Amino acid sequence: MHEELLEFAQTPVQALHSPLLTRQQLRLSVKRLDLLDHHISGNKWYKLKHNLAAAKAQNLTTVISFGGAYSNHIHALACAGSKLGLRTVGVIRGERIEPLNPTLADAERWGMELVFISREQYRHKRQPECLHWLQQRFGKSYIIPEGGANALAIEGCGDITRELACQLPDYDIAVVACGTAGTLAGMVAGAESGRQLLGIAVLKAHQSLLEDINRWLQGRQNLPEWQLLDGFHCGGYAKVDGELVVFCDQFERQFGITLEPIYSGKMFKALFALIEQGYFPPGSHIVAVHTGGLQGLRGMKPRLDKLRYLAQQADQC
To answer: Which contiguous run of DSSP H or E holds residue 32?
Structure first.
């Protein structure tokens, strides 16, 4: 499935420099997936592209998927669907709250029909009864799982490491944030043996993520070494504290790269903690994959401002 439905330029790689990196004798580069597109940014397009091609190939004009109120996946799907002339439906966890947050307002403006279901119903979204109900309500449709993670997404995310091999032939280790871990699995599948892949779990689901990755990679040969690290999730998915917010602010001032605290912020914070601890062998060339998601910052501003204020007050005590 290699039909190109939308064309995007290859995202750049940016080298970072700091006294810490020099002291630890490391090279660090960032794969800037956040620069892919203003709306369809980051790893979400890699997960979507083969799925949308499959929907087109099957002559299905409706695409349904699932997400929370700030879902980057829902946001990207709505925009891509609008550009491709596809009807999109977003099944959203929780009740509709007016006014809609910027993520959902964008999605609705791009023509996505939003269907809000209770958190209890959302827990059963993978069950045949729920999927049958959606097909009955919206007609024969192409259904993509939450976060876009399925076999076609794994194939698409393999392009990330295939691109890296061309852009940085000498890289040793690639690091990425993991929510569903579909991006990590795809990067492992697309990487050459001899590389190392490191995932940073951003939620409390380490064991289930490992099971999913192993299932997606089952039967593949000559895979590179990979690991999924736990303990950097700040208490769970979408959990954010003042220390993390301050880190993201300092990172942007130092390197000129904006982070969001749900995925990229946790990943970079974990990466720099590991560098401080001497985790990586001297001489390594590390590539951190910035998976985008910056659109979500708009709805988080009041919360982040409060955390910044509390962190500042704590520093003054």
So the answer is: strand 27-32
Query: Per the structure block, which two tokens stand in for 179?
Result: 């929510």
Per the listing, tokens 């995202």 go with: 11
Give the gyration radius of the chain's Cα atoms.
19
pTM of the model as a whole: 0.95
In the 8-state DSSP scheme, what is residue 161? Answer: H
DSSP H or E segment with residue 135: helix 128-138
Collapsing DSSP states into helix, strand and coil, what is residue 6?
A: coil
Please say whether the beta carbons of 180 and 172 come within 8 A: no
| Beta carbons within 10 angstroms of residue 208's beta carbon | 12
**Residue 14 and residue 11: Cα distance in Å, rounded?**
10
With a cut of 80, say whether residue 132 has pLDDT above it.
Answer: yes
Q: Return the structure tokens found at 162.
A: 């295939």
* Residue 128: cis peptide before it, omega within 30 degrees of 0: no
- Name the amino acid, one letter, at 193: S
- Give the DSSP letter of residue 150: S
Work out whether the CA dihedral 299, 235, 119, 65 comes out positive or negative: positive
Cβ atoms of residues 245 and 312 within 8 Å: no
Burial of 210 (0-12, 13-18, 19+ CB in 10 A): middle
Three-class DSSP category at 103: helix
Both tokens of 184, joined, read: 């990590």
Confidence band of 288 (pLDDT split at 50, 70, 90): very high
What's the pLDDT score for residue 309?
A: 87
What's the average model confidence in pLDDT over 188-205? 96
**What would the pLDDT profile of 86-123 be if each residue is shown by its tens digit?**
999 999 999 999 999 999 999 999 999 999 999 999 99
CB of 171 closer than 8 Å to CB of 193: no
Token duo for residue 119:
């958190």
- 154-170: per-residue pLDDT in tens? 999 999 999 999 999 99
